[in-house]
TrEMBL record, chains A, B:
SUPFAM superfamilies: Restriction endonuclease-like. NCBIfam families: PRK02234.1-2, PRK02234.1-5, recU. Signal peptide: none annotated. Endonuclease that resolves Holliday junction intermediates in genetic recombination. Cleaves mobile four-strand junctions by introducing symmetrical nicks in paired strands. Promotes annealing of linear ssDNA with homologous dsDNA. Required for DNA repair, homologous recombination and chromosome segregation. The keyword Transport does not apply. Its cofactor is Mg(2+). GO terms for molecular function: crossover junction DNA endonuclease activity; magnesium ion binding; nucleic acid binding. Belongs to the RecU family. This is Holliday junction resolvase RecU. It comes from the Bacteria. It catalyses: Endonucleolytic cleavage at a junction such as a reciprocal single-stranded crossover between two homologous DNA duplexes (Holliday junction). It is found in: Cytoplasm.
């Protein structure tokens, strides 16, 4: 059996002997973890949540005979919304996921203004919106409510602070448990915060 | 003022003298009409509904010095969900839009099985899911409930019928009015059917 990125070694180091919840998940990127989690949620009928495709501006396409169209020139576009959305317990869920190497804060430079506008609109229409933030150096992944991110974003113009302190994320966010199948089991945190 | 695709002529032909609702909209593609409509809904805080980007498999990217990354080889992937989703009145909305030149039926070959599975899942989780179907030859655009499409899809294996009859779409669907700003004002039909 092949484990990605040295997972095997980790499994050996941490035998599942205890009932302690693991919050650690070295190796896979946050995006991979969330994709695996969403697939698991979908297969188990827990929720229908997908990552949106990366927006791309297509400039040139070739149509070779007898084979698939080839895009030969295209550019990455800036996303106008968040990366993930879907439905859970009848509610609209919308979130963005970000990793940072920073230890003491989450830099707001990671976010675009239209993403904040989008989250704000989702919240006003009665949806659930949040960030999943991974502090790579702490090996911790948090669910942090959209309202809080919007608050810090708007505060930028007042106090000039360009980041969300790690302490605020610890206080107002919730650490997401790492599980074997629902690797980043964020819906367990959504249950806790919103239902 | 520039009107796209000969709109001007149409406007001249149909002065807004009556209170009759127009259901006709020659000229723009269904996708363009829906995008314009969604922008209008967003600007007026009516709903937050976006088209998902086209899924693309990127094979090669060049990073020229001092300029943006260029994708030099990529392929279109099949969508695993529907094209549009978002939130309206606190409810999750999910739909697909299709045009057909057929006059008597909507061919199911226009739909992929995973799209049907996706719609089914959305419906089971309490979302609103439907098709927007334009019959180009009739110059009519209908909202047709997801449940009905799923029914016809599943019937294929029983009666072998590979399309949804135009008569069923007239009976169980609702003609979407054409308006100046919300060009394809499908939320007026959603109000009527779901709220």
């Amino acid at each position: 059996m092949n484990y990605p990125n040295g997972m095997r070694k980790r499994v050996k180091k941490k035998p599942k002997s205890s009932t302690k919840i693991a919050y650690s998940n070295r190796g896979m990127s946050l995006e991979e973890d969330i994709n695996v989690t969403n697939s698991y949620y979908l297969e188990t009928n827990r929720a229908v949540i997908h990552k949106k495709p990366t927006p791309i501006q297509i400039v040139n396409v070739n149509y070779p005979k007898r084979s698939a169209a080839v895009i030969t020139e295209a550019y990455f576009k800036q996303a106008s919304t968040t990366d993930y959305n879907g439905i859970y317990q009848g509610k609209h869920i919308d979130f963005e996921a970000k990793e940072t190497k920073n230890k003491t804060s989450f830099p707001l430079a990671n976010i675009h203004e239209h993403q904040i506008r989008h989250m704000n609109a989702i919240l006003k229409h009665g949806g659930i919106s949040f960030f999943i933030i991974r502090f790579k150096e702490h090996d911790e992944t948090y669910l942090y409510p959209g309202e809080k991110i919007v608050y810090f974003w708007e505060q930028q113009n007042n106090d000039g602070r360009k980041s969300v302190p790690y302490t605020s994320i610890q206080k107002d966010g919730v650490l997401i448990p790492f599980k074997y199948q629902a690797r980043i089991d964020y819906l367990s945190v959504v249950d806790q915060l919103y239902f």
